[in-house]
């Protein structure tokens, strides 16, 4: 068992702690060590763990040092249709090199292997883990366990130290923000439709998608007035979901989701949505805005972001291991 692989004096526990403050602080320390800045807060951790497909009694583990301090943690996320589980893990920088990361990976590998039969018959099943490009220790661990580098994702930023050149709204489209009591089912449907040709997309239950968006709406980061909807007739054809600030970085706005439905691409709508949000963040006094994007975006998103003045500040790496061969149900 993974607990038996922990160093002497360390203990492992399955299930999220009732008080998330220590776990959130640990994850933030790990982020600061590998990226130079922390992002996770109690609120963002609570929001993530509130996902309807995460069982907080079974899909979370923590590791405690002999003095009881939480020094390791992981979250296992295996969304339907269960063809590509994702595990995020953190070890306290002061407790690296003792085998804690390896023990946590043992737990995740067992979880992923035990869930193979949940995937559709004949489907390829994979296990995915991630690490910042600067995290050489994590890279070595994953490669030693048979993982290979699958994809790179960029964090990009733009400084808001000057007025933004806001692109015009394309002809035939109306731009508005989300109503305070407006249901999120149309937003969820539009996001799903706009991401079908993006790397890693898999078909999922619409009701689960709506529940996930409603969960994020409970976050202190959510602000209906930062969610832009582009409409043509009665249809949403583009969306930009901005968060009030970037988690622990309260002086930075964050674009969580930007998508345009395929028939409406090539008209400048994505640039319009993006620059509109930049100018609103600038008006609110934010110093910068950031977002994350697939480095080899199948829709050319990185060209758009560079074209409006964004620059790359971090690179995240996805590592993948095939657990069962078969038909790949993800967009690649």
- End-to-end Cα distance: 34 Å
The averaged pLDDT comes out at 96
How much β-strand is present in the residues?
25-35%
Q: Quickly count the helices.
A: 8
How many individual β-strands? 12
Helix content: 25-40%
CATH class of the largest domain: Alpha Beta
CATH architecture of the largest domain: 3-Layer(aba) Sandwich
Order of helices and strands: EHHEEEHEHEEHHEEEHEHE
Q: CATH homologous superfamily of the largest domain - what is it?
A: Gcn5-related N-acetyltransferase (GNAT)
* Structural category: alpha+beta
Q: What is the CATH fold-level name of the largest domain? A: Aminopeptidase
What gross morphology would you assign? globular
Provide the low-confidence segments as ranges: none
> What summary fits the major beta sheet?
12 strands, mixed
Radius of gyration: 20 Å
Describe this structure as you would to a colleague:
The chain has 332 residues and is of the alpha+beta class. The chain folds into two domains: 2-146, Aminopeptidase, CATH 3.40.630; 156-315, 3-Layer(aba) Sandwich (Aminopeptidase). It is 27% helix and 30% strand. It has eight helices and twelve strands. The protein has a twelve-stranded mixed β-sheet with strand order 1-2-3-4-5-12-6-11-10-9-8-7, sandwiched between helices. Helix 5 packs across helix 6. The longest helix is centred in the N-terminal third of the chain and has 15 residues, at 21-35. The relative contact order is 0.17. The model has no long low-confidence stretch (mean pLDDT 96).
């Amino acid at each position: 068992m993974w607990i038996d692989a922990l160093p002497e004096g360390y203990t492992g526990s399955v299930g999220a702690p009732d008080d998330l403050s220590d776990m959130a602080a640990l994850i933030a320390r790990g982020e600061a060590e590998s990226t130079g800045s922390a992002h996770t807060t109690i609120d963002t951790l609570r929001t993530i763990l509130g996902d309807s497909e995460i069982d907080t009694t079974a899909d979370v583990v923590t590791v405690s040092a002999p003095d009881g301090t939480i020094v390791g943690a992981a979250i296992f996320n295996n969304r339907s249709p269960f063809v590509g589980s994702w595990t995020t893990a953190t070890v306290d920088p002061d407790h690296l090199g003792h085998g804690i990361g390896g023990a946590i990976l043992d737990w995740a590998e067992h979880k992923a292997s035990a869930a193979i039969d949940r995937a559709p018959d004949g489907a390829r099943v994979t296990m995915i883990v991630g690490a910042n490009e600067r995290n050489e220790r994590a890279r070595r661990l994953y490669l030693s366990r048979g993982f290979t580098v699958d994809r790179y994702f960029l964090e990009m930023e733009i400084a808001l130290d000057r007025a933004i050149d806001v692109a015009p709204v394309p002809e035939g489209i109306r731009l508005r923000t989300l109503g305070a009591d407006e249901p999120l089912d149309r937003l969820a449907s539009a996001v799903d439709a706009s991401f079908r040709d993006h790397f890693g997309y898999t078909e999922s239950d619409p009701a689960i998608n709506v529940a996930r968006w409603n969960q994020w709406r409970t976050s202190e980061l959510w602000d209906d007035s930062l969610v832009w909807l582009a409409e043509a007739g009665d249809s949403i054809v583009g969306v930009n979901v901005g968060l009030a600030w970037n988690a622990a970085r309260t002086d930075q706005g964050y674009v969580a989701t930007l998508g345009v439905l395929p028939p409406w691409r090539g008209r400048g709508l994505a640039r319009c949505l993006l620059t509109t949000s930049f100018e609103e963040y600038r008006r609110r006094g934010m110093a910068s805005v950031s977002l994350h994007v697939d480095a080899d975006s199948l829709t050319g998103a990185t060209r758009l972001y560079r074209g409006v003045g964004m620059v790359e500040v971090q690179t995240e790496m996805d590592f993948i291991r095939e657990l069962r061969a078969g038909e790949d149900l993800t967009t690649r």
